[in-house]
Amino acid sequence: MSRTISRRSLRSPLSALALLALTAGAVTACTVPEAASEPGAPQSASPETGQPAGATRHMIDNGGHRVAFYVTQGTGPTIVLDSGGGEDASYWSDLVPELHEATGATVITYDRAGLGQSDVVPGPWQVESAVSDLESGLEQLGVTDDVTLVSHSQAGQIATYFAQDNPELISGAVLVDANLPPFFTDEQIERLVAFSQPQLDAAEEDPDDPQNRQLLSTAESFVATSTDFHQATWPDAVPATVVVSEKTPFDGSPEDVQRWKDAAASFVQAGPHRTLVDADGSSHDVAKDRPELVLEEIEDMVAAQR
């Protein structure tokens, strides 16, 4: 995290959820990675991991570290669920069986580096590495087309760059209260940096703690990553449904709630084949508060591409 940005007082308070959602996510969800199988070897998902019954675990090697992918096998299209910052694949465990039953599709979840069963990667969080992990995982799993990508919160950054690099692979995306480029103006980045400093100072007292490690690694690159992300564009060829919660990550800060919603509206208006859906009554965790809505939007996106 840059130390040169001033810690000026914010005009309205930002909740802890806002900080965690946009930098390292709900860091309380972090777990110490368990011993993994040989790269590429499928295993039955352990109940202890919180993964859906019937899913198999594949340890994918990419650049010297291993990433855990969980596959519920189906036919036809593939649905890839990408959780928000600090959350592992178990975030989606309740939705996977329903999605699989409703669509018959193959459903894939995965633990990003440093979370769940995946290896820790030292150093600052890099969105390029996260995109590479997802690309490598799908390639090694034999997924070559017809992917519906579902991304929550911080995963919106990964989705944007993944879609730019692989527009032919994605048939559509459902962005669930996801980070979107228009939100990350210089002013908004400064607000988030100023608010985050006390949490970062506390985390630095115990940097080996897995939760603190995840927060610090993401915060270290937050300014540069967010500044670059503000310039990113979503490919016009990839349809996208943007689901926006009522409370957003900024519940309690009306100004920032409005900025989040305005960014979503701006994103949708900036290109074709984009739809805005309001998740009334929902917090930032739309998949937990309004699972029926998320399921409906994913099913509609899959059906529209058939």
UniProtKB/TrEMBL annotation:
Signal peptide: 1-29
One example GO MF annotation: epoxide hydrolase activity
Keywords, in A-Z order: Hydrolase, Signal
EC number from the UniProt entry: 3.3.2.10
Pfam families linked: Abhydrolase_1 (PF00561)
InterPro entries: AB_hydrolase_1, AB_hydrolase_fold, Carboxylesterase_BioH
Record-annotated AB hydrolase-1 domain positions: 77-264
Location of the region described as Disordered in the Swiss-Prot/TrEMBL record: 34-59
UniProt KW Hydrolase keyword: yes
Name recorded for this polypeptide: Soluble epoxide hydrolase
Species of the source: Isoptericola dokdonensis DS-3
